[in-house]
């Protein structure tokens, strides 16, 4: 059994070629582009990808629209343009698909975040699991940002990794992107905080995605949360062992939380 590939893009000329080249083991690569104004489309087509366009609404809608594209295969590897599939992961995916049962709907994969050519093994909060191999028609994507994936069937976890290059377009771009993210996240969190917190006991579930959702819901009710995030990543997770890259990344993650808090406070009139 083989699989197709879906890549979401918007002005990704700095990333798209390397992403597609990491997928040379696949012959059905599709790009869903959010009306880029750079050379993303040309570069993708030059490397053999089929490019489709759709105006961006939110991340859940975009991924669901992407999964409805005319793929050749039932299984889809879903990537962002700043992600690269390692040869080890490619081999593992092929092995899984050769023997996968009908009950399996999705596979999660860990990412290695890269800054200054260094893997942020500790300061990035690794390991975090991301749905990246999906059986079409068996997974629903919800939540406008930092999406939730609802699988109709078993979810498996792969041992291989995706390489993630969130700074390939520079530090300025990272802050611009997270400024946009923080506005969406603040809006979503205020809506979620209007309902009761999930039971803390669910933080001990064996499902890493569910565990992460519960811990995040509790974290966002804590005072001084940005400082808590920095202490967690840099001290408790020993992010200092990642060198200067780890220190800077922990600071940037803290700044993102500050942006979210500030935007929620502004929306609430300073409360």
Give a verbal description of the structure.
With 271 residues, the chain is α/β, with parallel strands linked by helices. The chain has 2 domains: 3-164, Spore Coat Polysaccharide Biosynthesis Protein SpsA, Chain A, CATH 3.90.550; 171-267, no CATH class. The chain is built from 8 helices and 11 strands. It has helices at residues 16-21, 40-46, 59-67, 87-99, 171-192, 208-219, 225-236, 243-267, and strands at residues 3-9, 29-33, 50-53, 75-80, 83-85, 104-115, 118-119, 129-135, 139-142, 148-151, 154-164. Strands 1, 2, 3, 4, 5, 6, 7, 8 and 11 form a 9-stranded mixed β-sheet that branches. Helix 5 (171-192) packs across helix 8 (243-267) and helix 7 (225-236) runs antiparallel to helix 8. The longest helix is centred in the C-terminal third of the chain and has 25 residues, at 243-267. The protein is globular and about 50 Å long. The mean pLDDT is 92. GO terms for molecular function: transferase activity. InterPro entries: Glyco_trans_2-like, Nucleotide-diphossugar_trans. It holds the Pfam family Glycos_transf_2. This is Glycosyltransferase involved in cell wall biosynthesis.
């Amino acid at each position: 059994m083989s699989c197709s590939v879906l890549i979401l893009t918007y002005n990704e000329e700095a990333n798209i070629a390397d992403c597609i080249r990491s997928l040379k083991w696949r012959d059905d690569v599709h790009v869903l582009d959010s009306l880029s104004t750079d050379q993303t489309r040309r570069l993708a087509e030059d490397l053999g990808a089929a490019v489709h366009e759709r105006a961006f609404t939110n991340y859940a809608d975009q991924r669901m629209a992407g999964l409805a594209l005319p793929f050749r295969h039932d299984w889809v590897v879903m990537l962002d343009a700043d992600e690269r599939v390692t040869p080890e992961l490619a081999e593992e995916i092929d092995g899984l698909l050769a023997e996968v049962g009908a009950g399996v709907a999705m596979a999660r994969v860990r990412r290695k975040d890269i800054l200054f050519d260094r893997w942020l093994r500790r300061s990035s909060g690794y390991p975090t699991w991301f749905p990246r191999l999906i059986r079409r028609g068996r997974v629903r994507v919800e939540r406008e940002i930092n999406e939730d994936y609802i699988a109709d069937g078993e979810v498996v976890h792969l041992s291989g990794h995706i390489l993630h290059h969130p700074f390939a377009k520079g530090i300025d771009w990272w802050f611009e992107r997270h400024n946009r993210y923080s506005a969406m996240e603040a809006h979503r969190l205020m809506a979620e905080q209007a309902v009761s917190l999930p039971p803390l006991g669910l933080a001990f579930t064996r499902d890493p995605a569910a565990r992460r959702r519960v811990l995040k819901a509790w974290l966002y009710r804590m005072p001084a949360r940005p400082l808590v995030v920095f202490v967690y990543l840099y001290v408790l997770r020993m992010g200092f062992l990642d060198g200067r890259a780890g220190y800077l990344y922990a600071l940037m993650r803290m700044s993102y939380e500050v942006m979210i808090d500030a935007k929620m406070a502004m929306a609430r009139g300073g409360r």
